[in-house]
Amino acid sequence: MNAAAAARRATELDASRLTHLVGYAATRASIELKKTFARHMAPLDIRVTEFSILMLVAANPSVNQRQLGQALDISAPNMAVTLDRMVEHGWVERVRSTEDRRAQQIHLRPAGRALVQRAEKISATMEDAALRRLSPAERALLIELLLKISAGKLDKANK
Question: Please, is 129 exposed, middle or buried when counting C-beta atoms within 10 Å of its C-beta (0-12, 13-18, 19+)?
Fold first, then answer.
């Protein structure tokens, strides 16, 4: 065994007690996909949560702050801080709802619309290299299964 192989073997751990767990596999995959996101979105100076908020606001023009927090499982204080940063960047604005004066709708500003277009273009292919070992059908199935698991949380919350 050469020195490089010996060094690699010394740093590899036996993960056999973890690899049967979906949570472990999902976490490992999530770590890699977060690195991919960070690498591709770095030029836009946007975080995963901000990206998700922008995409939801773009698709749901009358969405309010509470709905965004629920959809992304973000506490009200953390959502407020994130939206404050997004307002400072000029990406979104808070607008008092005309239907419910207690609610603040989140609207895209021109800079936010431009950012959505750039981010969507990047996101269309950014995961391709990380998921290259999956066929298109496997990728679609993976997404379907992960969304099915996350929907279980919603089912419990609605009971």
Answer: exposed
- The SS3 call for residue 69 is helix
Residue-wise over 87-118: b if at least 16 C-beta within 10 A, else e?
eeeebbebeeeeeeeebbbbebeeebeebbee
Please give the C-alpha separations between residue 42 and each of 6, 53, 78, 87, 111, in angstroms, as whole numbers: 35, 17, 22, 19, 17
- The structure tokens listed for 83 are 């939206």
pLDDT digits (tens, 9 = 90+) for 91-126: 999 998 888 778 889 999 999 999 999 999 999 999
C-alpha distances (whole Å) from 2 to each of 6, 13, 53, 80 are 6, 19, 50, 55
Q: State the CB neighbour count (10 A cutoff) for residue 33.
A: 15
d(CA 145, CA 77): 31
β-strand partners of 159: none
Nearest Cα residue to 32 out of 132, 136, 145 = 132
Task: Annotate 65-79 with b (16+ C-beta within 10 A) or e (fewer).
Answer: beebbeeeebeeeeb
